[in-house]
Amino acid sequence: MSDDSFIREVNEEFRSDQLKALWHRYGVAIVAVAALIVLGTAGYAGYRYWDEGRANVSGDAFSAALKLAQDGKNDEALAALDQLEKDGYGAYPVLARMRAATVKADKGDAAGAVKDFDDVAADTAIPASLRDMARLRAGLLLVDHGSFDDVSKRVEALSADTNPLRHTAREALGLAAWKAGKAQDALKLFDQIAADDAAPRNARQRANLMAELIRGSGVAPAGGAS
């Protein structure tokens, strides 16, 4: 036997003795940790399956309610959305509340729709982005069914330069101001939209049309807002 072979066998025997010693000392702990990893993985997989299952059921129910609304079956849609609000999972109860308000508006119940949107906006348990969307939807309805102050109360804060909803908020404010005879205020808002490169093209087009209409009516200076 060569010296290298002898040394290799000694090293292997030494490592074997070390492993045996480690196993005798930590074997139970190793098995326990391994068991915990397996159980944790199985538990997480089970939770994911349960979570996705509940979300899928709520998603299917929400799609069915939307189909009812699209088919003009508003009362049935409202009943389905009300049920989803009670027993839905994840974000679907809030989406059901928002959609139910829209269905009410489609039925001609603007006051009921505004109240529902206001309720969502006032619910601090709901994510801020959805609450802002509810404020905006209420404001848009009130352009036709309320006063300038009604609209401003809901969307003024959303018209700030850094708010992602500012374009629609300014459009709602501009239309409400024009309707209330506040031509200068309306023109300023539409000019802001038209000058905002981040605004959607269709929003800028509508803003330009409204600005031209206001200037053409003679109630605002042709060169811009004062």
**Helix fraction bin:** over 70%
- Tell me about the biggest sheet? none
Apparent shape: elongated
Question: Mean pLDDT, nearest integer?
Answer: 82
Give the distance, in angstroms, between the N- and C-terminal Cα atoms.
103 Å
Tell me the strand percentage band.
under 5%
Helical element count? 9
The secondary-structure element order is: HHHHHHHHH
- Structural Rg: 32 Å
Number of β-strand runs: 0
Structural class: mainly alpha
Q: Say what oligomer this is.
A: single chain
- Low-pLDDT windows of residues: none
Could you characterize the architecture of this molecule?
The chain is mainly α. The chain is built from nine helices and no strands. The protein has helices at 3-70, 74-87, 92-107, 110-122, 128-145, 148-155, 166-179, 183-195, 201-216. The mean pLDDT is 82.
